[in-house]
Design goal:
Layout (H helix, E strand, L loop, with lengths): L14 H8 L5 H24 L9 H7 L13 H12 L22 H12 L11 H18 L3 H7 L8 E4 L2 H16 L9 H13 L3 E7 L4 H9 L7 E4 L9 H12 L5 E9 L11 H11 L2 E5 L24 E5 L11 E5 L35 H37 L3 E5 L5 E6 L2 H6 L4 H25 L5 E6 L7 E8 L7 H18 L1
């Protein structure tokens, strides 16, 4: 805040005060104080999350950023814990985004079950570091168990397979990462290392680098193929891994926004017959694209990968947990053919920010990213940090393992099914309204649509020129409405740009709705459409 720092008279940074913050609450008074703080956090925020239906308070970013220009650390303490907590609850939280509101339907970030806060508090209190056993012990063991549970949902191997690998210190069924981006990076790192692995006279790409690898393999370029709807984390991986992000090649879509298999095969042939020597390191299937929630034909992709000896990665950051629904798991048919799979914990596992996971069908695949250090992760130890991009890492497995116990696969299935079915109802509602157009039919719980007012619809005809003009107008309208609705602060849908399929290949602006909050129901979604209609009528 802008006010000059007036050091609080009683507050001094001395050894005695410092020690008090580290000592555990041994007497009753100390315990009571700490309990009071926890209560303040849980109920203070709980009230905020319940009462603030709006997305944010109506304070502009400019006003807020003007209040946060203080760049000096004060020498003595400014505030006590109680005051800090009160300040956060009263001043900070109301200006954060209430992602828990059922009217907040624009992003993959939403309400979480309240027990997640308790579980997260436990991991903070234990402060385990799963980089190695010496700082985590049982938490490393729990991580291996929960990884095996999810691996089993994806790959459905035999009981014997899991008995052999669940606690095997030499093999890994996967790993936790900080998010989906690092899970994808880990998967592609391993794909690169195995596709350009050690051979006669060559120690492998991870040791010798990409230039030496290209020489050893007699190639000039390596590529990864994914649909146009690939997440931008894949491009980052292309950059980081020395593949070059131009070489993360986009394949066109079919009419249902899935990777076009014919175009993919064409591309593979073109690469094989090219005068340049090009190696395909991986083909990626998306199970729940970020923009439209669609699922690529995983079985077909898996078959193409095995015919061509290419690593098959499935980015199921969003859609992975759908496997827990008996009713809808068939949508991910073929995922078991994947060599690696990304799933985010903070998306449809409803874990607090942030948690990702990556799984490998072959429990030895992670060997290609083995790293040791004498001060940590010595050879022969079972430390999880030996095969992990991250070093220090929190024990997120405890949160997931506990959540799975509390919810059961059926609890998660109920959430997943609610999202998918509400999205279908919402699509019907959009189709029934003359001023809206459904753009992508939901496969999972994500759909896109746009406002397409009757008066413009009447002008629509076969002429490409007319269509282009109307699309341009609609783009403007949809951008404005999305912004005004967000600024009004009652509800929120997001916005993205997709290629139009029905018409010529233009970009059209669409509104995007993600239904993952179990409190978001069709009535709320109708209200959101009503509000958009109203904004249109009032302002345009
Ligand atoms: C969210 C998402 C990612 C990236 O995950 P982060 O956790 O945001 O890093 C990757 N792929 C898909 C399909 C996603 O939806």
């Amino acid at each position: 805040m802008n006010n000059p720092k007036i050091p609080h008279k009683e507050l001094v940074a001395d050894w005695q005060a410092l020690m008090r913050t580290f000592i555990r609450p041994e007497d009753v008074a100390a315990k009571t104080t700490l309990l009071k703080y926890m209560e303040q956090i849980l109920f203070g925020l709980h009230d905020f999350l319940n009462t603030h239906v709006g997305i944010t308070e109506e304070v502009s970013l400019k006003e807020l950023s003007d209040q946060y220009t203080d760049t000096l650390i004060s020498e003595n303490p400014e505030e006590k814990l109680a005051a800090v907590i009160s300040n956060i609850i009263e001043k900070t939280a109301p200006n954060a985004v209430n992602v828990a509101s059922p009217y907040f339907t624009g992003h993959m970030t939403s309400a979480i079950p309240f027990f997640m806060v308790h579980l997260k508090t436990i991991t903070a209190a234990l402060n385990q570091n799963v980089v190695k056993l010496e700082t985590s012990k049982i938490l490393s063991i729990i991580e291996k168990q929960v990884l095996a549970k999810i691996h089993r949902v994806i790959f459905k191997k035999s009981e014997d397979f899991y008995l052999e690998h669940v606690q095997n210190s030499r093999t890994s069924l996967g790993g936790f990462t900080e998010n989906g981006t690092l899970a994808n990076l880990t998967a592609l790192w391993i794909a690169r290392n195995t596709q350009l692995g050690p051979k006669e006279g060559f120690e492998g790409v991870d040791k010798e680098g990409i230039f030496a690898a290209f020489k050893a393999y007699g190639i000039e370029q390596s590529v990864i193929l994914v649909s146009e709807l690939g997440h931008f984390s894949l491009k980052k991986a292309g950059g980081l891994l020395g593949i070059g992000n131009n070489n993360i090649i986009s394949i066109g879509l079919d009419s249902s926004n899935r990777i076009d298999i014919a175009k993919l095969k064409e591309k593979i042939n073109e690469i094989k017959n090219s005068v340049h020597k090009i190696k395909i390191l991986a083909i990626i299937g998306i199970a729940g694209t970020t923009e439209t929630g669609t699922i690529d034909p995983l079985r077909q992709l898996g078959e193409i990968c095995s015919e061509n000896n290419v690593h098959f990665h499935v980015d199921a950051a969003w859609g992975g947990p759908v496997l827990l629904s008996k009713k809808y798991k068939h949508l991910l048919d073929g995922i078991e053919l994947a060599d690696s799979v990304t799933i985010d914990g903070h998306k449809q596992f409803y874990m607090p920010m942030s948690s990702g996971m990556v799984y490998f069908k072959d429990p030895c695949l992670m060997d290609s990213i083995t790293y040791h250090a004498n001060y940590v992760n010595r050879r022969g130890s079972v430390d999880l940090g030996i095969k992990s991009l991250s070093g220090s890492r929190e024990a997120n497995s405890l949160v997931l393992d506990s959540a799975l116990k509390i919810m059961g696969s059926k609890g998660y299935a109920l959430l997943i099914e609610h999202g998918i079915e509400t999205a279908k109802d919402f699509a019907d509602e959009i189709n029934n309204r003359p001023d809206f157009e459904l753009i992508t039919m939901p496969v999972l719980n994500i759909l896109t649509y746009r406002i397409f007012p009757k008066e413009l619809r009447l002008q629509w005809n076969e002429s490409e020129e007319v269509q282009r003009k109307i699309n341009e107008k609609l783009n403007e309208i949809n951008i404005i409405i999305q912004r005004l609705q967000r600024e009004a602060g009652n509800s929120f849908v997001s916005r993205t740009t997709l290629k139009a399929h029905k018409e010529c290949c233009e970009n059209i602006v669409v509104l995007r709705c993600v239904i993952m909050n179990p409190m978001t129901n069709i009535n709320i979604l109708r209200e959101i459409l009503d509000e958009q209609e109203e904004i249109y009528k009032k302002t345009l």
